[in-house]
Amino acid sequence: MKKILWLFILLFPFYVFAYSEYIIPGGDTLGIEVNSKGVMIVGFYKVNGELINQDFKVGDKILKVNDVEVDGTKELVDLIDEYMKDSKVTVTYIRNEKEYKSDLVLSLYNGSYRTGLYVKGNVLGIGTLSYIDPETGIYGVLGHALNISSTNQQVEIKSGYSYEANVTSFTRSVDGNPGSKNADIDKNEVFGTIEKNSNYGIFGKIDNEQKKEKMKVGKLDEVNLGEAYIYTTNTNNEIEKYEINILEINKKNNEKNLYFEIVDKNLLNMSGGIVQGMSGSPIIQDDKIIGAVTRVLVDDVDKGYGISIVTMLEEGDKILAE
After folding, report:
1. Can you tell me the distance from the alpha carbon of 120 to that of 274, in angstroms, rounded to the nearest whole number?
2. Contact status, residue 11 vs residue 203, Cβ threshold 8 Å
3. How many Å apart are CA 224 and CA 100, to the nearest integer?
């Protein structure tokens, strides 16, 4: 009898990063709308004076009703109405990445059945464009994950789009209470698709070709302490260049590569410091795009962190392989 030697090859994702050496820096404020897989429980309310369905928790994600997939809040209501029997339906949900099945109890109130659950199926907000790769059409926003604010859980994207947005005002940041950039989102002006949500930003493909000025990509080894700039939109809805000071460079952290402070008086007067909605603003040094703003120090709002632009570019390129 011949002996047969079986050779097993371990397969791992293999990516050939194709990002361009010259990319288009962002700074534009974009509206972001994504539909998640299923609907997430974000709170509870009383029905007939009592809380029901307390076996569920905030952050649980309902995926199915009687094994039929839930696409959004309207579908959840319709499916409950269709499959309800003896004032309950069976739902499939995820908690801590594990799947469970359980009965969802309905309570009659003023002629209609209530679940006692607040749920959210889509997310709408604003962020700042970090870059566009003109060769691949891939773009990146935020520089960090898109999370549900009430649960801080990362959104698993089913579909999504970004839109043009017009900045209307700033709610100023003060130490202990970061402010926000406020904008009107124009859903008639689609900027691109949203296809990926990761720890390093959200990524998609532009809807129309952009012919803006390109800038060389700067790797972390090329970054120096000291003077640099961020691009972000002001209250006139114009992309403006504002001076920052890079205080520390961290090559070991995947998400907090650059520690900086805002020194530009115009930006400080307008926003008070780093604000929500500024995440994704590209960081420029020596005419190279080196990173993007990601976080603010809550107790010292003129200081924050940035991520290496190379990390974002490599993450965005994975769209091509998926």
Report:
1. 28
2. no
3. 50
Q: How far apart are CA 122 and CA 106, in angstroms?
A: 23
Contact 115, 53 (CB under 8 A): yes
CB hemisphere CA count around 130 (13 angstroms): 32
Look up the pTM and report it: 0.81
DSSP label at 318? G
Q: List pLDDT tens digits, range 218-247.
A: 999 999 999 999 999 999 989 999 999 999
Q: Where are the alpha helices (DSSP H) in the chain?
A: 73-83, 265-271, 309-317
With CA atoms as reference, report the closest residue to 118 among 185, 41, 31. 41
CA terminus-to-terminus distance, the chain: 44
Q: Tell me the C-alpha distance between 141 and 144, whole Å.
A: 8
CA–CA gap between residue 277 and residue 257 (Å, rounded) = 20
CA 115 to chain centre: 29
